[in-house]
Structures are given as C-alpha cells and as structure tokens.
Amino acid sequence: VGAAPGEKPLAGRHVVVTSGPTHEPIDPVRYIGNRSSGKQGHAIAAAAAAAGADVTLVSGPVALADPPGVTTVHVETAAQMAAAVEAALPADIFIATAAVADWRVEAAAPQKIKKSAVLPHFALAENPDILAAVAQRRSGRPRLVVGFAAETESILAHARDKLARKQCDIIVANDVGGAEGAMGKDENQITLITPSGAETWPKMRKEDVAAKLVRHLAQLLRERLDA
Ligand code: CTP
Ligand code: CA
C-alpha cells in the first residue's frame, strides 16, 4: 500500500546517523569515554525510518536496543566510526549526534596496565573529525549535513563557531551542563542554528525532538532539490 507523500516524506532517501559515545582504549580493560546515552541519536534514526528513509545508524557502545527498521552498525572507537560512516555513504542526509571522543591514547597498552609505584602517563592523539570530513567532501557530499553541539556554556556562540568551522548546514545546539543538561535524560531543549539564523524549540521528549527535526529536514531537503 503506498503511503501519502506527507506521511513518508523521506521515502527513497538514505539517511546516515551517528549516535552514542566512542570508547578509546587505554589497555584491554580500560577506555576513555563520555556520558552520551545515544537516546537522541537513536530516536532520530527511528524517526527517519518512520518517515520512510533507508537509515544507516552508526552507533558507539550504548545500552539501547537497535531501532527497528534501521541498519545499525556497531563500533567502539572514533576511527571505527569514521570508517563505518565512509562505508555507509553516499547519503542524502548525514546527522552527527555522536559524542565522538576528541582524543585517543596514542599507543594503547596490549596488556592490562598493572598498578605500580610509578603513575602511568598517556600520550594522546587527536581523533578524526567525522562531521567536518563529511561536510567538506568535494564529491558525494550529502545534501544536508547536520551536527550537534553539546555545550556547557556560551552555547549559541560555540555552536555558531562550529557551524562555520565544520561547514555543516545546521548545528543543533543543546545544553549538557549541570543537573538540567540533556545527557542521559529523556528530554532535550535545542536551538537550531543555520547560516541565516537561530530557532529555539521548547523542551520536549527526545522522541518528539527527533520527529520534529526529521520533518524539518525533509522539508529543507525538498526545498533544496526543488531549487
Ligand atoms: N564530531 C565528529 N567527530 C569528532 C568530533 C565531533 O563527528 N571527532 C561531531 C559531533 O558528532 C557533533 C559535532 O561534531 O555533531 C560537534 O561535536 P563537539 O564535540 O561539540 O565539537 P568539537 O569540534 O569536538 O568541539 P569541542 O568538543 O571542543 O566543543
Ligand atoms: Ca568534542
């Protein structure tokens, strides 16, 4: 049964979403990680599938079930996430919600590091910026590239800076600071930042943010394709 176009506004589109944290190994039993739950990213993947899209979700380690109707690729590290995203492209829309670890331990120890009188020190290396790499592709750039900005202060200024620096089309800014922050919670309050302005949405359940964001992106994609 064919759905009305309004119900499946992303039918025939490929959407790639990153979600969750990455874990960067220190040794076989320890890692650098962060507090991302993956709730918002997984909800966006599910909402895009519900809107008719063919969805690839590249997920770091999370305690969530794979969303139904979505192709989920499980990764641990930022390098693996970057490779999985490259393999998933081309896409019409790329949405980077993952809290990618900014640094990895340059040389993870092959065996568990034992406690001793000498404190261990770790040299760090910077991880690849997955969002910036996708947004700055010369060929095969997704029509819409959306990033998230998790900030604890000066939220809009930092988010505007990220939009310009990474060259994405939209940054979704959210406050992850303090007890009111979004990380791990079921609700999120976001501001959409585009080169032409900012739009703040009321605090909503992450599923509702996802559905509204997907409707918004489907509309924007349609406008760009018509233009
Ligand atoms: N991101 C990414 N790859 C990275 C780091 C970030 O794809 N190595 C993406 C995130 O998924 C998010 C956006 O970039 O969509 C912003 O992430 P954020 O951590 O806020 O930005 P950074 O540039 O890492 O800046 P900082 O952590 O210093 O605020
Ligand atoms: Ca970061």
Question: What do these coordinates show?
Answer:
Pathway: Cofactor biosynthesis; coenzyme A biosynthesis; CoA from (R)-pantothenate: step 2/5; Cofactor biosynthesis; coenzyme A biosynthesis; CoA from (R)-pantothenate: step 3/5. Catalyzes two steps in the biosynthesis of coenzyme A. In the first step cysteine is conjugated to 4'-phosphopantothenate to form 4-phosphopantothenoylcysteine, in the latter compound is decarboxylated to form 4'-phosphopantotheine. It catalyses: N-[(R)-4-phosphopantothenoyl]-L-cysteine + H(+) = (R)-4'-phosphopantetheine + CO2; (R)-4'-phosphopantothenate + L-cysteine + CTP = N-[(R)-4-phosphopantothenoyl]-L-cysteine + CMP + diphosphate + H(+). It comes from Methylovirgula ligni. Its EC number is 4.1.1.36, 6.3.2.5. By secondary structure, the chain is α/β, with parallel strands linked by helices. Helix content is 27%, strand content 26%. It contains five helices and 14 strands. It has helices at 39-50, 78-88, 130-135, 155-166, 206-226; strands spanning 14-19, 24-27, 30-32, 54-59, 71-74, 93-96, 103-105, 124-126, 144-151, 170-175, 187-188, 190-194, 197-200, 204-205. It has an eight-stranded mixed beta sheet, sandwiched between helices. Strands 2-3 form a two-stranded antiparallel sheet. Strands 7-8 form a two-stranded antiparallel sheet. Strand 9 (144-151), helix 4 and strand 10 (170-175) form a beta-alpha-beta unit. Helix 1 packs across helix 5 (206-226). It is globular, with a radius of gyration of 18 Å. The chain starts with 13 loop residues before the first strand and ends with a helix. 40% of the residues are buried. Bound molecules: cytidine-5'-triphosphate and calcium ion.
